[in-house]
Specification:
The structure holds two protein chains of two kinds. Chain A is of the alpha/beta class. Chain A is built from 20 helices and ten strands. Chain B folds into three domains: 192 residues, ABC transporter transmembrane region fold (Up-down Bundle); 114 residues; 178 residues, Rossmann fold, CATH 3.40.50.300. Classes of the chains: A alpha/beta, B alpha/beta.
């Protein structure tokens, strides 16, 4: 696995990545065009508003007459109301567009994730994927709605102002327009700088959040190590550099806004100077001068906004790139079109075409290497597991004991060779078909937030009360449930946090059994359960696996001695195969594992 | 309970806490406010200059200028001088703008300095406080909730102080001065302009306080949606193995739709608010222009004054519209302060007066130790409940229901002679881990009413030993050790000042970690922890063992810390340890007999009671739990 990069990537996509989000916008094409049109109209109205002042001053005030004032007021109010209505609909549409695009993208990412194979999840950590679903889509939604509208509004406003200025007084207009490039250059310069600085601040901020998380979740370790001072010093280093960096950023952005407002004032002064003389000379009316002054003050903000929108667009490319990468990642375990045709896909199964699963499993010349590995972990492996047989896989931590199980469950596919289920290649039927017949209990059991009942019924939604209790009793978990105040309807907490690891293992065991699978996989399912309970479960396993094909991964060897087939795995490879007696007699690797586990125990016991 | 030294102060009032955090940043904020006021004043001058210029240019009537300025103007040559020298006015405007720009720069940088200093201060204090809070507190409070308080609540307070409060000063000055200037120009027109101000502020205030609740609801929903994704991702194997993809899709789709719908409703309200605000303030502008024009025609106002008045009115519009929001944000900041106050008011671990050190190579003795946790109560501290009630005092109610306590340890007494090895065997929930947490004072015996007994090391009650000293001398390897972000070497040498690679290598070797490390391309420099490579449970345990070996503490505790290590490695480690730690007092907790059988004394715990005690050889001869477990662990 790659070390997670702390730095935010910088990405450059053709056309700022916009083509990649077009598919999400297609549905809303008409609305978007409507929004843009309304935005242009609204800004147009905005840019002519000062003309009312001009007219009132030039006509009513200068000529000392109130004759047209009523009309002016009426027209102004009509325009104002019209603009307000338009703006109302625009913001309304805009916010919907943002939310819809956001929602569609989240759904698309989430649904796509449901179809990706495990190699994706092995290569990307949960936090990373989580951010793709939750925050990237939000940023993109904001871009296509508010940033776009802001651009339209401000661009149209500037264009409108320039047009109005040129119509009313071209000479003064030239003066203002001449200053715009200067402003743009300065703004771009600062915007670039600020983008870099802001990114740094964001990175530091997430580091600090990480620090807090570490300090809190690791507090027991900090205390047992008496490492409080050290942690404090480290933390202070981070907050101090955050403070410094933030102040630096603030310094730049303060300079930035100061200079921009200075430019506004310079334009204002120029207008007053030139325009003043023009008015004195009678070339221009005083009302016109006042209009220009309000334009001079009002034009800087829109320019600044447009440029920062561009900066945002550049930054959002990263998010677009990531979402796009997620959505275009192809699962390396995928059903063929023919299989989908017959058995349905992940979301639309055609259960009417599903055959029953009997439970014969055969590995036929299977060679396998993990997609992110370079070494073959299985080579021309052959094994027949008849229906109802129990297979145990033993070996050291990290020796690759899960590989076979991953292949049986088709979480991965053989690089070469075939896995046959009921004598047919696993790939001939859909993944969902296979998975609905498998019960899987993990070493780190995962429970969902909710009640015990909800968790137990995860694999069998229509389980009766009786069935639930039978499953619980089979794995001796009924005590856990009875002890809780609300019984089956007690909350298990976030990720099952209200239960201990051992309790979670038992509940997830019961969950698997309740689903009545044809193939049962126990991946170190009882490692955190005490010996007495484990023995109870051991007996239960005997009952439960009867009539089912089962795979048991264990490092406590006492749990697997009765298995039909034992596979000993070392450094990712299967080194021995047979039942307990055969392997003990062989006095090979398995024998040594057993010997070590019971080392120094009285000799006689070990003689199988 | 013993008296504790109150090193840290209690914060009964919000203001007290705020002032505490403001140490070191107050002066920046004061400077910032001064410059803010300056900016507002300078901003207000320009319209006056323009008004004068316009009137001078038109020359129809003398502009209304304060007496002393009129004198200056007359001195330099009267209005006529400026009329023919307009560039001077232009320079004046630029000059004032420059002053305003400089003040604005200082306003913003002082603001940032103050804000960042404040945040830095708050974070440092909170972090320091939190890692010194007792484990009991951490058990009772959810991680996510604490982090939320330390990050987003801190930020809310910062934003309130540095964005809103300082701006508020500026805005109020701007509003007040605008109004004064407007009144100065023309009282009647000013009354017309001002009349709508309370309406706008009031409307905005009511709206924002109402919508605040909806925002919170949407936030909650977002939290739920986010948790759903989190669970789906971390439980991906379960989802697949049960073939529940459709179900998950549907569930997520529904929640997603609901979240989206909530936002849409909220945005609808906001759009309406903006639109109606536009109507009101647009009308106000119109009224000012229309009446102003009428007054001009009547001769009550000069043209220049009208233009100035219109500019002042424009200056008024935005601050007034934002005022309502600022005021409603205040209540939000208040809630955040309360949430932080809750953490700050929780009591840190404090050593008793006169606590000292002792010879840690002494006998350890547990005397009649009884311990109970408060019964698990679902409603006590969930974040959900917090958001539901959002109690004004921000406290998390722990005493909702006192339930009968469940005893974890019941009258436990035993002795561990210095330098010996004791094994503790017990099932899930037998109380073995509690025993260790008590020894290291992660939990305190006097914490709950039903707890009693004492623990001594070398005849000294551990209550009279400084926590830091105690913990430095007891090495504990937890079942699920925590690795900090950093390299493997940094983690192993975490208790040292620097990193002595030789020591690190030695310790790793004993912990049978060296081979695993060498397999990583970056070896000891491999980055682990939250953002790094994920180690297997066994590798984590072995890292923790190496960590402890580096310290060579006189007391070593292995809390089921070889459970995720396979048998072969387990043996390797234990053999190496036995050689390395001859004089160390060792406590081994396990449910694997082979791990404990060599101990000098083995204690068998069952439901908080000691049921058997003795050496392996003695215990297998007795009928009892030990023998039963031993037999269960035999190969068939």
């Amino acid at each position: 696995m790659e070390e997670q990069k702390k730095k935010e990537e910088k990405v450059k996509l053709p056309f700022f990545g916009i083509p990649k989000i077009l598919p999400f916008l297609k549905k809303y094409k008409v609305r978007i065009i409507g929004m843009i049109l309304m935005g242009v109209i609204s800004s147009g109205i905005d840019s002519v508003f000062p003309l009312f002042n001009k007219y009132v001053i030039n006509h009513n005030v200068a000529l000392k007459t109130l004759d047209t004032l009523g009309y002016v007021i009426a027209l102004y109010m009509v325009l104002l109301l019209f603009k307000v209505v338009i703006d109302y609909f625009t913001t309304f549409l805009c916010s919907r567009l943002e939310l819809w695009v956001n929602r569609d993208m989240r759904n698309a990412s989430f649904n796509h994730l449901q179809t990706l194979s495990f190699s994706y999840f092995n290569q990307n950590n949960v936090g990373y994927i989580h951010a793709r679903v939750m925050s990237d889509s939000g940023k993109i939604g904001e871009l296509v709605s508010w940033f776009m509208m802001e651009f339209v509004w401000n661009f149209a406003y500037i264009a409108g102002v320039i047009v109005v200025m040129f119509i009313t007084e071209p000479k003064l207009a030239l003066l203002v327009v001449a200053m715009i490039p200067v402003a743009v250059v300065i703004i771009i310069f600062f915007e670039k700088k600020l983008t870099v600085l802001n990114r740094k601040v964001r990175e530091l901020n997430s580091t600090i959040t990480g620090d807090f998380n570490e300090g809190i979740t690791g507090v027991r370790s900090i205390k047992t190590l008496a490492a409080e001072e050290k942690m404090n010093t480290e933390f202070r280093k981070d907050t101090e550099s955050m403070r410094k960096e933030s102040v630096r950023t603030a310094h730049h952005s303060a300079m930035f806004s100061s200079i921009v407002s200075l430019i506004g004032s310079v334009i204002l002064a120029l207008i007053l100077w030139k325009g003043g003389y023009m008015t004195v000379d009678g070339v221009m009316l005083i009302g016109t001068l006042s209009v220009f002054m309000s334009y001079a003050l009002g034009i800087m903000d829109p320019i600044q906004t447009i440029i920062s929108d561009f900066a945002a667009l550049i930054q959002v490319q990263v998010n677009i790139e990531r979402v796009d990468k997620l959505l275009t990642t192809q699962s390396d375990v995928a059903d063929s079109p023919e299989v989908v045709e017959k058995y349905g896909d992940t979301f639309n199964p055609k259960k009417e075409n599903w055959e029953d699963l009997y439970g014969d499993i055969e590995f036929k010349d299977v060679s396998f290497k993990y997609p992110d590995g370079d070494e073959m972990v299985l080579e021309n492996f052959n094994l027949k597991v008849p229906q109802g047989a129990g297979v145990a896989i033993v070996g050291e931590t990290g020796a690759g004991k899960s590989t076979l199980v991953n292949l049986v469950c088709r979480f991965f596919e053989p690089t070469k060779g075939q896995v046959l289920i009921d004598s047919r290649d696993a790939r001939e039927r859909s993944q969902l078909w296979l998975h609905s017949h498998i019960g899987y209990v993990l070493q780190t059991p995962h429970l969902f937030t909710g009640t015990i009942r909800e968790n137990l019924c995860y694999g069998k939604t229509d389980a009766t009360e009786e069935e639930i209790w039978r499953a619980l009793e089979l794995v001796s978990a009924e005590g856990i449930v009875k002890r809780m105040d609300k019984g089956l309807d007690s909350d298990v907490g976030e990720g099952g946090g209200m239960l201990s690891t051992g309790e979670r293992q038992l509940i997830s065991f019961a969950r698997a059994i309740l689903a009545d699978p044809r193939i049962l996989v126990l991946d170190e399912a009882t490692s955190s359960v005490d010996t007495v309970t484990e023995r109870t479960i051991q007996n239960a396993i005997g009952t439960v696996t009867k009539g089912r094909t089962s795979f048991v991964i264990a490092h406590r060897l006492s749990t697997i001695v009765d298995s039909d087939i034992i596979l000993a795995v070392r450094d990712g490879k299967i080194v021995e195969q047979g039942n307990h007696r055969e392997l003990m007699n062989k006095k090979g690797y398995y024998y040594s594992l057993v010997m070590q586990q019971y080392d120094h125990l009285s000799d006689g016991v070990l003689d199988a | 309970m013993e008296k504790k030294i109150l090193k840290k102060q209690k914060f009964d009032k919000r203001s007290k806490l705020l002032l505490f955090f403001l140490r070191g940043s107050k002066r920046y904020f004061i400077l910032c406010m001064i410059f803010g006021a300056l900016v507002a004043l300078l901003d207000l001058i320009n319209p006056r200059i323009i008004a004068y210029t316009v009137d001078a240019v038109i020359g129809e009537k003398e502009s209304n200028v304060p007496g002393f300025l009129r004198d200056i103007i007359d001195n330099v040559g009267g209005d006529a001088f400026f009329k023919s020298n307009l560039h001077i006015i232009a320079f004046m405007i630029v000059g004032i703008a420059l002053l305003a720009v400089v003040s604005r720069y200082f306003f913003r940088t002082f603001n940032a300095r103050g804000g960042e200093k404040l945040v830095c201060n708050m974070r440092d204090t909170l972090y320091d406080h939190i890692i010194h809070l007792p484990v009991k507190w951490h058990n009772e409070n959810q991680t996510g909730d604490i982090i939320q308080r330390c990050t987003s609540d801190v930020d809310t307070v910062r934003r309130f102080l540095s964005d809103q409060l300082t701006n508020l000063v500026r805005v109020i000055i701007l509003i007040v001065m605008s109004i004064i200037f407007m009144l100065n120009i023309n009282v009647k027109l000013a009354m017309i302009a001002i009349s709508l101000v309370p309406v706008i502020v009031g409307y905005s205030l009511i709206f924002h306080s109402k919508i605040g609740k909806s925002f919170r609801k949407v936030d909650d929903m977002e939290g739920r949606l986010s948790a759903m994704v989190q669970e789906n991702l971390s439980g991906v194997r379960v989802v697949r193995a049960f073939g529940k993809e459709s179900y998950e899709r549907e569930r997520f789709g529904k929640a997603n739709e609901k979240y989206c719908g909530m936002w849409i409703r909220l945005m609808q309200l906001l759009s309406f608010f903006w639109a109606s605000g536009d109507v009101v303030s647009g009308t106000q502008v119109m009224l000012v222009v229309a009446f102003g024009a009428a007054f001009c025609v009547n001769g009550q106002l000069t043209t220049g004054e009208l233009i100035a008045f219109i500019s002042y009115n424009a200056m008024l519009t935005w601050p007034v519209r934002s005022l309502g929001r600022v005021i409603s944000e205040m209540s939000k900041a208040g809630i955040s302060i309360d949430r932080i106050k809750y953490i700050m008011n929780s009591e840190e671990e404090e050593d008793t007066v006169g606590a000292g050190e002792t010879n840690m190579a002494g006998d350890i003795s547990f005397e009649n130790v009884t311990f109970a946790y408060p019964a698990k109560d679902e409603s006590d501290h969930s974040g959900e409940e917090e958001s539901k009630t959002k109690k004004s005092d921000g406290e998390i109610n722990n005493e909702a229901e006192e339930k009968p306590l469940t005893r974890v340890l019941d009258n436990v007494s035993f002795k561990i002679p210095a330098g010996s090895t004791v094994g503790i065997l017990g099932g899930t929930g037998s109380g073995k881990s509690t025993l260790i947490q008590l020894l290291d004072r992660l939990l305190e015996i006097d914490e709950e009413s039903e707890c009693s007994g004492r623990i001594t090391i070398g005849d000294k009650d551990i209550k009279d030993i400084k926590r830091k000293f105690l913990r430095q001398n007891i090495g504990i390897v937890l079942q699920e050790p925590y690795l900090f972000s950093g390299t493997l070497a940094e983690n192993i040498a975490i208790t040292d000042e620097g990193i002595d690679m030789e020591k690190v290598r030695d310790a790793s070797k004993v912990a049978a970690l060296d081979e695993a490390i060498e397999k990583f391309t970056k070896g000891y420099e491999t980055y682990v922890g939250e953002k790094g490579v994920t180690l297997s449970g066994g590798q984590k345990q072995r890292t923790a063992i190496a960590q402890m070996l580096l310290r060579k503490p006189p007391i070593m505790v292995f809390d089921d810390s070889l459970s995720a290590v396979d048998a072969e490695t387990d043996v390797k480690i234990r053999t190496a340890l036995r050689e390395k730690s001859k004089d160390t007092t060792t406590i081994l907790i396990a449910h694997r007999i082979s791990t404990l059988m060599h101990a000098d004394n083995i204690i068998v715990l069952d439901h908080g009671r000691i049921v058997q005690q003795g050496t392996h050889d003695e215990l297998i001869k007795q009928e009892g739990l030990y023998k039963k477990i031993f037999e269960l662990q035999q190969p068939a």
